[in-house]
Structures are given as C-alpha cells and as structure tokens.
Amino acid sequence: FMFIFQLKCGNCGEVSEKWQYLRLMDSAPLKGGRGSATMVQKCKLCSRENSIDILSQTIKPYNAEDSEKFKTIVEFECRGLEPVDFQPQAGFAAEGAESGTPFNDINLLEKDWNDYDEKTKESVGIYEVTHKFVKC
C-alpha cells in the first residue's frame, strides 16, 4: 500500500507540484548516519534535507462503525516535510461487514467506490472520502 501526498517544506513553505508516493517498505538513510526514514528529500527551493517516516505501528483499519467520523488511521514522523494534501488511489481493501466478502484493490481516486456483495445480495460502497491532517 502507498500513501500519495503533496508535501510542504517546513523551512521555506515550498509545496511540491508533484504528488509524492510513500510506501511502508521504502527506507532511505538520513544524512550523517542518524538512521533512516520512509522518504528523505532535498527541498528544491531552500536545499534543506527533510524527511517523513510512516510509523507502521500506528496503522489502523477504518471500519463500518467508524463511518462518517474522522479516525486516525496512520501517523507520520515529520522532520521538515509536512503533508498538505492526500490523494487516495488504488490499493485499498474492504471486507463485507456482514458477509466477510473480501474486496481487494479498491480505487478511491474518484472518492467513491461501489460493488455488489454476492453473499448478501446487496450493493456495497465507500462514498465521499474525505481526510484531514492533525499535528501532534
């Protein structure tokens, strides 16, 4: 699974024009051998080296009982890079709440998805996907 963001430099405020992909399995070394992060990037405007790390232990599912509520599903350690926009795309998965039917590789780029659950003979879907970032 990957997170797709527009990122902002915390030093100069420059927002990337391109969407950046963050994947849990990616790791890049930090300058000076201080460990690693999911993404390490030099700002094009101010040349500062910034990083963002997905905190894997914070990843949580969003369930039917969470519907229409904001819920923290992942946390990031941001050192100079701050996400300002999120673009859901392919790679999401869901499971029928009553049937347990798996729905894989859900694409949420259009912020909506629907399908049909053969076991319950009902339409299923995810609608009006929204997000917000909360600084800790």
TrEMBL record:
Pfam families (UniProt xref): CXXC_Zn-b_euk
A GO MF term: zinc ion binding
SUPFAM superfamilies assigned to the protein according to its UniProt record, in alphabetical order: MAL13P1.257-like (SSF141678)
UniProt entry tagged with the keyword Metal-binding: yes
InterPro entries (UniProt xref): CXXC_Zn-binding_euk
Keyword line: Metal-binding, Zinc
Domain of life: Eukaryota
Recorded family membership: Belongs to the UPF0587 family.
Protein name, UniProt field: CXXC motif containing zinc binding protein
Organism per entry: Pelecanus crispus (Dalmatian pelican)
